[in-house]
Amino acid sequence: MTDRRRINGPSEGTAPPVFLTSSTRKAITKRSPTTLRKIFLKTSLTPPATGSAFLELPTPQNSTTPTLKLTASVYGPRPLPPSTTFSPNARLTAELKFSPFSTPGRRRGYVRDGVERDLSAQLSIALAKSVDVGKYPKSGIDVFVSVLDCEGGLGDLDSDAGKGRDSGKGGGVEVGLMSVLAGAISCASAAIADAGIECFDLVAGGVAGLVLEKPKWRKGKKADAGQEEEMDVAEDGDSKPSGKKKSRRTLTLVLDPSPTDGYFIVAAAMVAYMAARDELTLIWTKGSIDPAGDGDGDDGVEEVERVIDGAITAATGVRLVINEAVKERLLLGLKEMGLVKGNAVVASGDADDGDTVMV
Amino acid sequence: MAPIQASQQTSTPLSPVELSYLHTSLTLTPPIRPDSRSPTQFRPLIAESDILPSTNGSARMIWGDGGECIVGVKAEAEKNSAAPGGSKDWIEINVEVSGQRDDDAFLGMTVAESLLVPGSGVLERLVLGERFHWKVFVDILLLTPPLSHPATLLTLTTYLALRNTFLPKSVSEVAEDPVFDDDWGNALPLYPTDKIPPPITLLVVSVGENIFFDPTREELAVGDIILAVSICGKKVVGVRTLEGGNGGVGRAVIKRVIKESCQVAEEVFGSLNSVEEN
Questions:
Q1: Is A79 in a helix, a strand, or coil?
Q2: Would you say residue B5 lies in a domain?
Q3: Domain co-membership, B171 together with B36
Q4: Is A44 exposed, middle or buried (0-12, 13-18, 19+ CB in 10 A)?
Q5: Which of A17, A160, A198, B89 has a CA between 20 and 30 Å from the CA of residue A340?
């Protein structure tokens, strides 16, 4: 006898619908490997914050293509709550949060997960070393970065982006999180400068990846290609010397690789770089890099050097954008005070936040 | 110059004067470490493997400063699913630090990132026919956290445990449900000796021109930059920056740290492998 009082589901269960991944994300690699994406960066867009910035990587193709958008707001330096112990330096805390709608597909929860905590920690390391914390005793500087849109997923361990090769991506190392962190560092640094907090230097984030060249005839069946190449890499790392006819992998350096570009990335590096001082505050690499200097690369330069220098080059490019954004804001402020006519700076030394700008 | 203490995590009971003294003695050539070790020398440790009978592989390590870590590896046959994570979900890593809230994402992320590096070949060995695969659980238990950063202790123990992990041999055809050989003697190692070994992570601190391995808490407090370098075989599979230090460092320092780490890692691999043989 069947139960007629309730509306029951089908007795043998149902299968969840399987959707095909949209083809809009399939990007065509148009950029040359050494070209960075254009960056839109504007400061002072969040009035209540002491300093703020908005960063966006525009994608030229169409408006539905996911891109990277994030905002940073800086509060402080403000006094620490009385319960905290004495601190001779400013305490810089950074918090990076993905909006629930930032990832394509699955929604992200409001509770901070491991990835966000990890990125927040790295962000605060990168920023704290650039801020002159000794100038602000007993105070706290709070940086909040909120990611509004992260292009094509993150490739982290618990997101839906790890589908790998069949979803139109190149496979290999995922650089989604790296470009988010690089963007967050650049944006937050501009916001810190906007807040008028004294820094040693502005810090910019840059990403570079070593990409495996794909033989052209294999392009049609990407999945197979990825599989075989992975095996190649595995063989390369074998401790025992293998056969004589071992094909050397040829790696191209790609600056600012996007997860939607469809590269097979063997190794990637992200750096936080202070260009005026030629110093790094943070380094994060993924993927296997061969440190042995036996001329593995195209031009005999070691892979470690290539990928780190590449990331630094990318960061230097981003730095120019930060400079412009900070300068634009500064000139606007000076103009309001009547110190500037047109574009020429009359007096810049005694301006409020003039000393944060280093060109 | 007295380095400024960056955070509570690296803070030590040392006064600014003591920190300055330590910083100076570490920048000398040759440097003088407080415990008179050489820059690449590790602190003495006790290691044993294969200690838990109910696991597929296990190891235990005790460090001189009181840090103790136990790692158990268990494996289950699991049906392939269309789950979003794909084959990255086949290895699950849990880090439990006793007496602490488990919100330090760094340790788990470091181990996971270096274990799942593309091309390590371990995921291919977990395939069981067409429809099944092994799911490996790596449970890392830090019984007494060491006084310094636990990353090195944790990954060295994980290395030993994974090296001793054996999976029952499958005797079924690729299309069948998996059936395994009853004889444990025929079990296959998860990391065969002729394949790429599991990764380890070395904590390296750079002070001035000098680079120190296995730093103590006091040495971490005066470091210019603290890097966690993960090495798998002969390759660097991940570099991360840890909190500490003041201001940035030049790129040459970082490159040198990475290169030296690889040389030291080879020695570490050698001594870890000798633990298994005993």
A1: strand
A2: no
A3: no
A4: buried
A5: A198
Q: Within this chain, do residues B192 and B204 fall inside the same structural domain, yes or no?
A: no
pLDDT at A217: 39
CB contact under 8 A, A283 and B194: no
State whether B19 and B111 are in the same domain: no
Among candidate residues B162, B196, B230, the one where a domain is terminated: B196
For A84, nearest residue in chain B (alpha carbons): B8
Q: Are A74 and A195 in contact (CB under 8 A)?
A: yes
A244 burial type by CB count under 10 A (0-12 exposed, 13-18 middle, 19+ buried): exposed
Q: What is the DSSP string of A129-140?
A: TTB-GGGSTTEE
Last residue in a domain, options B147, B173, B196: B196
Confidence of residue B83 (pLDDT cuts 50, 70, 90): low
Which structure tokens are listed for B141? Answer: 């238990």
* Residue B4 resides in a domain: no
Query: With an 8 Å Cβ cutoff, are A238 and B195 in contact?
Result: yes
Residues B116, B187 within the same domain: yes
* Contact across the interface for A118 and B258, Cβ inside 8 Å: no
Could you tell me the sign of the dihedral formed by the alpha carbons of B233, B255, A198, A338, in that order?
Answer: negative
Q: Which residue has the tokens 């070209």?
A: A35
Q: Is pLDDT at A313 greater than 90 in this prediction? A: yes
Q: Residue B6 corresponds to which amino acid?
A: A
CATH number given to A40-156+171-215+250-290+299-337: 3.30.230.70
Residues B38 and B59 in one domain: no
pTM (two decimals):
0.81
Spatial distance between the Cα atoms of A265 and A283, rounded to a whole number of angstroms: 18
Q: CA of A252 to nearest chain B CA: how many angstroms apart?
A: 17
The band of A347, judged by pLDDT with boundaries at 50, 70 and 90, is: very low
CATH of the domain at B34: 3.30.230.70
Q: Note the pLDDT tens digit of each residue in B202-251.
A: 999 999 889 999 888 888 888 889 999 998 888 888 888 888 777 788 88
**Beta bridge partners of residue A241, listed in sequence order:** none
Question: How many domains does the structure of chain B reveal?
Answer: 2
User: Is B12 exposed, middle or buried, given 0-12, 13-18 or 19+ CB atoms closer than 10 A?
Assistant: middle
Is residue B158 located within the same domain as residue B101? Answer: yes
Q: By C-alpha distance, which of A127, A153, A156 is closest to A141?
A: A127
Name the DSSP class of A239. S
Chain-chain contact of B248 with A115 (C-beta, under 8 angstroms)? no
Q: Give the number of A-B residue pairs with CB atoms closer than 8 Å.
A: 164
Q: Is-contact A266 A216, C-beta < 8 A?
A: no
Name the residue range of residue B98's domain.
Answer: 50-196
Cα end-to-end span (Å), chain A: 83
